[in-house]
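Weekly puzzle thread! Below is a chain. First person to post its structure in token form gets bragging rights.
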Amino acid sequence: VFYAKIFGWFSMNYVTNILRGVSTTFFLARWLPVETFGAFRYIIAVYGIAGIFSFSSFHSGIIRGIAADDTEVAWVGTRFMLRYSLVGGLLLLLAGGERWWRGETTVAMGLWISALFFPFLSAGSLYGSILTGQGKIRTASIYNTLSNILFVGMFAGTLFFFKQNLLAICITFFLVYVL
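Winning reply:
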């Protein structure tokens, strides 16, 4: 029964993650003009490259450390992730500077917005690992499910009402992603 419950919570988590990805892709492709869609995809691609410096693979070590009641391992991993997330933020700032230099000011500002949120996204992603390490699978799944629903709702609303405004789309995407 215990494993069935955990499997159920993980399944709910998995399903809402898939629905978030599919609906976000659908809304982007359906509601955005081609130019805005292309610029946003560029920002997300550069953000993905900067994601190398988020060291998300440390999550499993942090989960194990917390599960073994070794808070020192968790703190060392957390500090390491946060320190190097600043490198990813710097990369995004530089990429924005390069786009500014080429005259693409809106894309540059979108990259700078992503740079501001990058360290917070790295830190915020640790919450699920901490809950998982503490064995609070139900709480982590409920949090993730509500976060996914909020993300889809806010992002879809922004895409619908601000189709041409790349900056509003970037701010909403990264702000709601932090939550």
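Puzzle host: Confirmed. Bonus trivia for everyone else. The chain has a mean pLDDT of 85.
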